[in-house]
Amino acid sequence: MTRGYVMSQREYGRIDTSMLQYETKKAIPAIHMNEENACFIVEQHDDILHLTISNPALRNALDPSSYETGIEVIRAAHHDSGVRAIILSGADGQFCGGGNLHRLKKTRKGAASVQFDGISKFHSWIEAISDCPKPVIAAVEGACAGGGFSLALACDLHQPL
Fold it and tell me: What is the pLDDT of residues 70-111, one digit of tens each?
């Protein structure tokens, strides 16, 4: 059984984890994303959940909304008895170039609390991966830098493509 959908924290707000349970033949909704926000492609093939970071214009750069999405997807998979393993990858031949440098540059000029909040959210995603009792595999291809490297290191297995 294959299930899949595309999601963007920015466009959909909080994730309804029941989305993981929809039927096979439903269409994957199209998402219009801007250059600054990553979205995820989430597919389930039998008992394997495949989470793809998708922001190819910026080498799959991350932002705080993507951290929240990653946390919720990993936690939902953790509690889903139909998922036995998780694969984390990046779209278009790049794993993850780390944080969105345009956003980070703007954030540096802001309050320290905003910077701390972003780092805390990212750390929570790393913890969600580390705490997941199911194997999480980093399928690394292309760029893997900064926060992307941290994500790969948090996984149980690192498999270069």
Answer: 999 999 999 999 999 999 999 999 999 998 888 888 888 888
- What count of other Cβ atoms lies within 10 Å of the Cβ of residue 158? 13
Distance of alpha carbon 53 from alpha carbon 119, whole angstroms? 18
Task: List 139's β-bridge partners, or say none.
Answer: 89, 159
Which secondary structure element, helix H or strand E, spans residue 108, and what is its range? helix 101-108
CA angle, 91 then 9 then 83, to 5°: 65
Q: Which amino acid is at 80?
A: D
C-beta atoms surrounding 21 within 10 Å: 12
- Whole-prediction pTM: 0.76
Which amino acid is residue 95, in one-letter code? F
Question: CA 15 to CA 19: how far, in whole Å?
Answer: 8
Residue keyed to tokens 């830098």: 145
**What would the two tokens of residue 144 be?**
């893997």
**Cβ atoms of residues 114 and 107 within 8 Å:** yes
d(C-alpha 31, C-alpha 16), whole Å: 16
The amino acid at residue 71 is: I
